[in-house]
Amino acid sequence: MNQCLDLLNEGAWLHFFPEGKINQTGSFHPFRYGSARMIVEADRHPIVIPFYISGLDKVMSESRKIFFLPSLFQDIKIYFGTPMDFSDVLEQHMKQCADESLTNDPRIARRMRRIRWVSCLRTISQKIENEMIALKACHTKT
User: Fold this and answer.
1) In whole angstroms, what is the distance from residue 73 CA to residue 51 CA?
2) pLDDT tens readout for residues 94-135
């Protein structure tokens, strides 16, 4: 994660799976906090472009005859969502962290920071997950 964060800070493009792994089931696993952590810890607020890839489950399916070779001539579609900016969430998080100075007990302040940190990561991850679910729903045949 730290290496990815360094690349992001250098202005590189990052493509990652917010579920924490490649998923071949067709449904989403709960999103992990790694992508949110990179957004929070980046030097500049990155723009997130959600995208949904359809058809990879046929290219690298578990049922192919020769396991290490992809299945050829399969349709793959990539759907891009609306770019997402999390500046508002990050600004709100920073305001809440500034309020921690109101307590004199360092243990309480540390616990409050941790709770707010996790809450910020959860909020960002949930927004990305909601956008991905909506993107998939728009482009999946019923």
Assistant:
1) 22
2) 777 766 566 677 777 777 777 888 888 999 999 999 998 898
